[in-house]
Amino acid sequence: MGHHHQHGQGDGHGHGHGHHGHTDIDWAELAEHLEEQAELFEPLNRRAAAWVAERQPEPGLVVDAGSGPGVVSTLLADTFPGARIVAVDGSGPLLERARSRAERLGVADRFATLEAELPEGLAELEYPADVLWASRSLHHLGDQRAGIAAFAERLAPGGVLALVEGGLPARFLPRDIGIGRPGLQSRLDAVEELWFGEMRAALPGTVAEAEDWPGLLTAAGLREATSRTFLLDLPAPVSEAARAHALTVFRRRRETLAEYADHLDPSDLSTLDRLLDPDDKASLYHRTDLFVLAAHTVHLARA
């Protein structure tokens, strides 16, 4: 659902990167969706990275913790032309895509990958990081407080941790779309909250933790914790890439909802089916009122 996977990251409360769906996630299968989403979200990520660069203009080492296929890792290489970039992820196939992307974009000479599980795999880094970027990877760790502490430990003195968590659920359609009961997206968000809670509950060693990200950064001994939210605003009429993203998000939601059908009105399920039917004029394939509006929050703190 979402996280989109949002989750791109573009859906759910920040877990829209499309990483979700089932709790044991086949990341490689999702590579294409993750790439598509991150490319769509590039303007947002570029502004977020520029904000990080205001705090840390000339890092020697930038680490992307939970890099996936490396779309943001290579964007960080662009933002920090003097830095060495290390993309860290638990999935070898995704890191392969990151490496070929770095080659394609001409930054392979200062780009490395580390196949390792977060957070303990960060101990394998040879040097402390001047910037550690963690976008929606923390909420996949059972113990998020321990995760932040592990991130903080890998920072060089004065190094910056940039944590992307939270934000707002993405919006794709007006409240009343002319079919079904108005307000469908809010009701889908409520089911996504349930799904996200169960995803967290099923993680190994999961710990219930209030999601006070600046508070958790401060508790880990970091200073100057501050947050800023960045907007992705793609108004109607959208590009084919944005339409494809919306379709992927709604398709994944439809799969997830099969498990939560009892939490939704049957009319909402039939509306969702119509939105996904290429032969239906009211579907996402044909709608002229489709847009993408998403907000991701970045929490920054310094070692």
What does this protein structure show overall?
The structure is a single chain. The chain has 303 residues and is an alpha/beta fold. Helices cover 37% and strands 20% of the residues. It has nine helices and eight strands. It has helices at residues 31-40, 42-55, 71-79, 92-104, 144-153, 184-201, 213-219, 240-259, 266-275, and strands at residues 61-65, 84-89, 111-115, 129-135, 155-164, 168-171, 223-234, 292-302. Strands 1, 2, 3, 4, 5, 6, 7 and 8 form an eight-stranded mixed sheet that branches. Helix 1 (31-40) crosses helix 8 (240-259) and helix 2 packs across helix 3. The longest helix is centred in the C-terminal third of the chain and has 20 residues, at 240-259. It is globular and about 55 Å long.
Structural class: alpha/beta
Our Rg estimate from Cα atoms comes to 19 Å
The N- to C-terminal Cα distance equals 35 Å
Strand element count? 8
What shape does the CA trace take?
globular
Helix tally? 9
**Mean pLDDT, nearest integer?**
90
Characterize the biggest β-sheet.
Answer: 8 strands, mixed
- What share of the residues lie within helices? 25-40%
- What is the H/E order? HHEHEHEEHEEHHEHHE
Strand content: 15-25%
Low-confidence stretches: 1-23
